[in-house]
């Protein structure tokens, strides 16, 4: 009876020692063990975590935190309202020139991110398209008539069927993708 009780106490002490980190706000084991009363002495900074299955906390991934400046997000009315999206498309100017490096970067990004739905030929015949509503043909006349800002807002903020790719596609990559689509529209007439 004494051995299991000692083993349980040892397990609790080990889990307290290894579950406390600087990120959780506990300064030391003594402070975290004496603040058992919830309010007002205990808050999210001084909470003791007894979760040994969770493992060690890691720093956030680089794609989880914006690192390249601040972009004004579209308001919810600009995402839903076609007139507001068209107004944004009229104001938008692609700052990236359509040079060879931009097209090469965009081709790699397109192969990695866009081919599953839009397909290698930009015809909307990717492997995922068979499971959902097929995406539009990017070389069709309807897409050619769209402004660059419209394409940018669809890439970054999504649309009726297309999800938002804002976390996966940076603004610079979106500019490159617009250049790639326009280049492919010029070299592949339909």
Q: What is the count of DSSP helices, taking H or I runs of 4+ residues?
A: 8
Structural class: mainly alpha
Q: Report strand %.
A: under 5%
> Distance between the terminal alpha carbons, to the nearest Å?
82 Å
Tell me the number of strands: 0
The CATH topology assignment of the largest domain is Cytochrome Bc1 Complex, Chain D, domain 2
How much is the average pLDDT?
Answer: 75
Number of separate structural domains? 2
CATH homologous superfamily designation of the largest domain? Cytochrome c-like domain
Shape: elongated
Oligomer classification: single chain
- Just give the CATH class of the largest domain: Mainly Alpha
Topology summary:
Elements: H1 2-19, H2 29-34, H3 76-80, H4 82-91, H5 100-118, H6 141-144, H7 148-157, H8 171-187
Question: Overview of this structure, please?
Answer:
The longest helix has 19 residues, at 100-118. The protein has helices spanning 2-19, 29-34, 76-80, 82-91, 100-118, 141-144, 148-157, 171-187. The protein has eight helices and no strands. Helix 4 (82-91) crosses helix 7 and helix 7 packs across helix 8. The radius of gyration is 26 Å and the shape is elongated. The model is unreliable at 20-24 and 65-70 (pLDDT under 50). It has two domains: 1-58, no CATH class; 76-187, Orthogonal Bundle (Cytochrome Bc1 Complex, Chain D, domain 2), CATH 1.10.760.10. With 190 residues, the chain is mostly helical.
